[in-house]
């Protein structure tokens, strides 16, 4: 529903129609809250401002977790994807990550249809001029069109729009995204309330015309076939799949780009915000890695009905003519027509140590932050935060217990915990290396980890839980069969020899056979005689879980034991307003970080950047001896 004049009260207001705002508003509305989504333009909801791609290394894990909890990103990606890849399959299953290229316009249209068709959700084309509070309680907002709207909770998902400034060479203009105005007034309103803000930078590459590319001189990159869906709600992808293409920069390209360094806002100091270290601009790559004579460039078509190609790997804010000359020096792009130059955008953010793990701000009760306002980058990180914030905004209205994903339960929990405890001075991106329990937090088992929580929140239908229960039953049934069933050498040795595995001399159980390096569950299915087990192994998701659970049983058990040990540290609760200056033997930095973040447990304190192991020991001993800290029951 799109409205011109909103009501005067909503349970939850969500500001911003990007990936965070979509998840936050849909979650709150589906949990029964009257919800208002405010966006500058309704037709900008779900717009993919950078690469029209979803997922990637670790990001794909986030999307599957969002889906398992009842979020929307995976469903939209499946509906609008034009190429699908499972990344890192040459490595272990902990780092397998789904990724898809979406049709840019289709993705946005699909997202808008889902938002505008949602019960309990209104959409207002406007922007926020002021945040209204009484003491430390949120009361509502005042919009630029003069509406004063009261609410119990609000999720602020401002993306790159807070005082956004875009740079191309020596030219700069106000804006949060190409062709769209910045959001003014929100930063100033929040700073008046006592919040600390900072400045970050991101960028985007040029777009070029597909018809002007010599594709024969590039390396074709085809989709997986069949593609694996993101959403646990979908069994298959039926979209027409299209290829992407790979080429490389060369020394001539680098020389051309270097000609523009003296006019690059990155090098001249015009850009004050810090950019993403893991995804540098092309000029930064050429400058920092001068010894390299080439860099990968992926040419990614933006949809079925467009000639626009996203030049992935060529993010830049160099002068337009330098971008054009540099593009044309790349193999296959000698005659490329540049549709739009790349640019960098600076924007305000609010360091996330100012948040609770629910993503509610510590200063103002009822006010939640999600997405790039918290210093993150990426659609997936934003959507994950939006879902967590939207759920907790609704739970606050309903006076229910907050929802927090632990580090041991999901990448969503790792991300939020990292943001709060380590904060950020550069845009935060999720990596598998950030998760200490990544073998347990795989993309393939997100439903087993989180879907029941989504059901309890009212975001997952009962039928999905019934499907999950049936899958779990088949996995357990199959594993028990493999552990309890022996196979004779004559029955298994032909397969072992075919797979370059040493033969066996006496009967052995099938589970041990499956643990062999070159043996898959699909192989085991060929020697299984039980019809029920054979049928179970014919089901892809069951077969996948059986194989991983069998092959990595020892590692999985060890990680579960680690989680149980470290969980005890979370039970040592610290009083919310404890005065850390009382402990003279704490390091100066330790005192400052503990005071700023105010951890709720010894476990959280141990994960704060700048708090040493010695600080944690001193803090624990002091709190125990002073009787402030409650010791958990270790017999539990």
Average of per-residue pLDDT values: 92
- Give the helix level as a range of percent: 25-40%
Q: Structural class of the helix and strand makeup?
A: alpha+beta
Largest beta sheet, briefly? Answer: 8 strands, mixed
User: How many E-type strands?
Assistant: 23
Strand content: 15-25%
Domain module tally: 4
Characterization of the model:
The chain has about 625 residues and is an alpha+beta fold. The protein has 22 helices and 23 strands. Strands 1, 2, 3, 7, 8, 9, 10 and 21 form an eight-stranded mixed β-sheet that branches. Helix 2 packs parallel to helix 10 and helix 12 packs antiparallel against helix 13. It starts with a strand and ends in an 11-residue tail after the last helix.
Which terms summarize this structure?
636 residues, alpha+beta, FAD/NAD(P)-binding domain, Elongation Factor Tu (Ef-tu), domain 3, Arc Repressor Mutant, subunit A, 4 domains, 8-stranded mixed beta sheet, 6-stranded antiparallel beta sheet, 23 strands
